[in-house]
């Protein structure tokens, strides 16, 4: 999947479509004479006003524009002088204003003007009075912009008051609005990391966002892999225009306030007492929206109003000035006692920025705080400045943890091996061994290496406590190697609570893997309980504990909720957890994305699942996390195939084949075959698809991965093997908690029996748990069965139910949806032949695929043509709703 660039395609309305609709609705009210658009700088006020003016012109108004400025305000009517007809005597305002209104209205008083006034708050009083009269006369429709916080004055207030002028308040984009507008502008989805970085850097400011994206596109930092747009490395940089915009904003600060801005550029937050500025200067900074004043516990703090201000200031402050500012702030903070928990981190960071060095003990303390806050890049930068002679086992363990989280697994293994060899006590040795085996499980190490290292350590364990911890770690390793039953046995004596455990990290890892195993084995109720318990415990561990972010415990919870039949809750938790961790833990973000994608796939939302699989793939490539590549690309292929995008499915499967096979992770043997199976199905090769799925289900069964086996057998049932798999699905349903497994079994049994009543019951069950695509398929098949039975009223009701469910399936196209109703009169063999022919497959190739003679294929195809009332393969494709992938195939016109 190669990268590609695209020129910036500006959004049509800067994401303000809903506000434009509000204004259009207000204008439909004959009492509304205009609109005033209010908001801070850079939120798209002018762009929305421009669209309002264009809309008014299309409606027959004559458009004009005026810009109010402080200079124009010094002259009465200065801003709108160009609207006043020549020769009007302004010495008598009452008469003159009436003359202006008559002249603007034109002959017959049938001309209307739409006037856009930028920065209305700067308009002079005389102009405001004239505009008010023109509005009252019905000659002018006012479109105005006002910057939030600016004083309006009595005349401006009268101009837009009274309810005749509709007010719209614009705020900076939130994260979801930013995602929407980026997708529209880039004509494709944006990755979670890119979204986070662009939203954080822009602060939701529309103007800044545009320039950041433009700069990232020009530099090649923002690229598409064919599925999503992602940033390569580092923070996005903007354009020269963005630099000028920010410099202009910063120039609004007077010389007295400039030192405050410079200090904030390096400290990010500053106690009000440390500002050392006159109150008038701070008030001016706040009024011009250059700083924000916030309350942090019992302190009043100053912050820059936008992160880009700090970047620009840091680029312009000389080195000696920077050193002086930072060291003075260090002295002030230490003089206050440096009592706050994060003061050590702040002081160490300031000292490094000022002098390039700091006290090693302070650096270690600061790095510990940064690691606990999951700011791994900062923790790594701090640790790397500690001189080698000051390194201890504790330092190396922290550094190894940071390297692990950032995907530098080889370097982490080297450090942990050093600690293990030089361990002076049991605690150090256990920490090193646990760190190494976890690193081997998730890193790109050969399968089996982690288990061998753990077993070797167990053989040399010096105490019962050490053996207990290592036994728990072995359970984790086996579960991650798709051996849930064996791993769960090893975790039988895992403490019920973290407070009873000898090691917090070992307990959290054990709870994480226990949840995973329980979910794989279908014991979803217990899995959910353990996941919630582990998450709560993870939230309250000591800052010195080398454990992952608590959101990691959400990964197996998503798996458990999905298999329990709580699909809506699973996808909600996955998306919320990703938002919280998108820049905290790259490794966790990959698996959160994968499990969220899987939950969307089970819910029958292939477009959303495709997006999350693409995010997982992009993130895995970014840190070379090979374990996640195959499940990511397989999921991508399955989603693309179901959406009818066979080219994308083929591309994803090519990447899948290139990726190494590592027997670790959350996707057990079998589920990786979904991509190939569904591409076969999309091409009409249903027999091959069923064969792939059934073989994959056997692989899942061999590892006791009950829920994966059920998933694969259900898909085989959907593709025509219901009679073959219904008994096994019924057996699996007895082994699983929740509602998903029984609903799957009921669907397979209903398909096998072709019983419309049972199909409708299954559809209702599946819709209740959020499995929309399965519900749509069941209802569609029920409608076809009712139609064949002559029960047209019941068929219509089932069709309506199917359409309601299918509307939530984001354009999914599966054989059951395509053929169950439109090809209701076809036999199963005729359906298979028809689907292959509709895909453009030649008759001789169909014969080879289905092990039939060419004549038999042609006979089946002719029967299908007759029953469906078509004469060509193209018509057949249109009738079945399938894309013709080989339009130039010479056999397309006839069998």
Structure description:
- There is one protein chain.
- The chain is mainly alpha-helical.
- α37 (772-788) runs antiparallel to α38.
- It is flat.
- The two termini are 36 Å apart.
- The model is unreliable at 884-895 (pLDDT under 50).
Strand fraction band? 5-15%
Average pLDDT number: 86
Order of neighbouring strands in the sheet with most strands: 2-3-4-1-5
How large is the count of helical segments?
Answer: 43
Strands, count: 10
Which helices and strands appear, and what pairs or packs with what?
Layout: H1 17-27, E1 34-39, H2 45-58, E2 62-67, H3 70-73, H4 93-105, E3 113-118, H5 125-136, E4 140-147, H6 153-160, E5 165-169, H7 175-186, H8 192-202, H9 206-219, E6 222-224, E7 229-231, H10 240-250, H11 258-267, E8 269-271, H12 279-287, E9 291-296, E10 299-304, H13 307-316, H14 319-335, H15 343-355, H16 360-372, H17 376-383, H18 393-406, H19 409-421, H20 426-442, H21 449-459, H22 464-480, H23 484-490, H24 504-520, H25 524-539, H26 554-564, H27 567-581, H28 586-603, H29 606-622, H30 629-642, H31 646-658, H32 674-682, H33 686-702, H34 706-735, H35 740-753, H36 756-768, H37 772-788, H38 792-806, H39 815-819, H40 828-838, H41 843-850, H42 854-868, H43 873-880
Parallel strand pairs: 1-4, 1-5, 2-3, 3-4
Antiparallel strand pairs: 6-7, 8-10, 9-10
Notable traits:
895 residues, mainly alpha, 5-stranded parallel beta sheet, 43 helices, disordered C terminus
Summary, kept brief:
The chain has 895 residues and is mainly alpha-helical.
